[in-house]
Amino acid sequence: MGSAAAHAAAPSKQQQLMMMLAAAARQVGPQRLQLVPPPAKPDRRGDQAGSPATAARGSAPAVAPPRIKLRCVSEQPPEPDVMDAGSSAPSTPSDCSSMETKTTPSPRGPLPASAARQMPTPPPPFPAAPRVEVRRVWAHNFDAEARLIESLLPRFRYAAVDTEFPGTVYRPVGASYTLTPERRYDLLRLNVDVLDLIQVGLTLFDAGGRLPGPGGARHVWEFNFREFDVRRHRHAPESIAMLRAKGVDFDRTRRHGVGAAEFGPRLRKWLRAGLGRAGVVTFSGGYDLAYLVKVMFGPGYKMPRSAGQFEGVAKAALVRRPLFDVKEMARLCPRDLRGELESVAVKLNVGRAVGEAHQAGSDSLLTCHTFMKMRESYFDDDEKLARVAGFLTDITAC
Question: For 251-277, what is the mean pLDDT?
Answer without folding.
Answer: 97
